Amino acid sequence: MTRVEVATPHGPARVEVHSAAEGRAVLLLGHGAGGGIAAPDLVAVTRAATEAGVHVALVEQPYRVAGRRAPAPARQLDAAWLAVAENLGDGWFAELPMLFGGRSSGARVACRTAEGGQASAVLCLAFPVHPPGRPEKSRQGELDSVEVPALVVQGDRDTFGQPESAHRREIVLVSGDHSLKSDTDAIFRAVGEWLGRLLRLLD
User: Fold this and answer.
1) Which of 22, 37, 63, 146 is the most exposed place for a label (fewest CB within 10 A)?
2) Is the pTM of this model over 0.90?
3) Contacts for 115 with CB less than 8 Å, ≥ 6 apart
4) Which InterPro entries match (predicted)?
């Protein structure tokens, strides 16, 4: 594991790189709005990805690096994310397929930037379909904008709602709420299986 800082338009981001023995792709993973890269679901996905032959880059947004807990506006999150993706794609992981992913707010960033960042696939953990109790504030459109293969792993008791399945988008429900802490083994299995199928498509 290696930690590096990457300059972005909104301050430095911090990236924790976990290398696979035989890297066939790289997965960028973003954290939730108030949490960090040590969230249990992100740890499980990192393990699943590296075992599947995918490098992982856990991306800590500039507002977290600066010590702020309140998230930056969406446009700043997206710009910082794309700056990190470009840096890693040009340097560390040149010519490897790049996958975007994250939990909650990080999943939204991955969806919004997938096209601009030329992501080959998107992985969403605990995608916040709407604020709790506010289904009229739907963010389903962010998921629907993703035109590459996507996997959404969602807790079956997530008060942020349940995403709709669609062509090229798989939904896997696991036991738990929005934190996805209850069954990290199920997350590990779901992500590992999906990545195995995805890598065969990308080869």
Assistant:
1) 22
2) yes
3) 145, 147
4) AB_hydrolase_fold, KANL3/Tex30_Abhydrolase, NSL3/Tex30
Which residue reads 């807790």 in tokens? Answer: 155
Sorted by where each starts, the structural domains of the chain and their CATH numbers stand as 2-202 (3.40.50.1820)
Are the beta carbons of 54 and 37 closer than 8 angstroms?
Answer: no
Q: Which of 124, 199, 198 is nearest to 158 (CA)?
A: 124
Question: What amino acid occupies position 135?
Answer: P
pLDDT tens-place string over residues 69-91: 888 999 999 999 999 999 999 88
CA distance 198 to 203: 9
Q: Is 14 helix (H, G, I), strand (E, B) or coil?
A: strand
Closest CA to 29 of 96, 89, 83, 101: 101
Which pLDDT band, with edges at 50, 70 and 90, does 165 fall under? Answer: confident
CA proximity to 149, closest of 109, 191, 107, 119: 119
Distances (CA, A) of 38 to 46, 47, 169: 10, 12, 26
Q: What average pLDDT does the segment 46-66 reach?
A: 97
Both tokens assigned to 139? 């963010």
Burial level of 134, CB count in 10 A (0-12/13-18/19+)? exposed
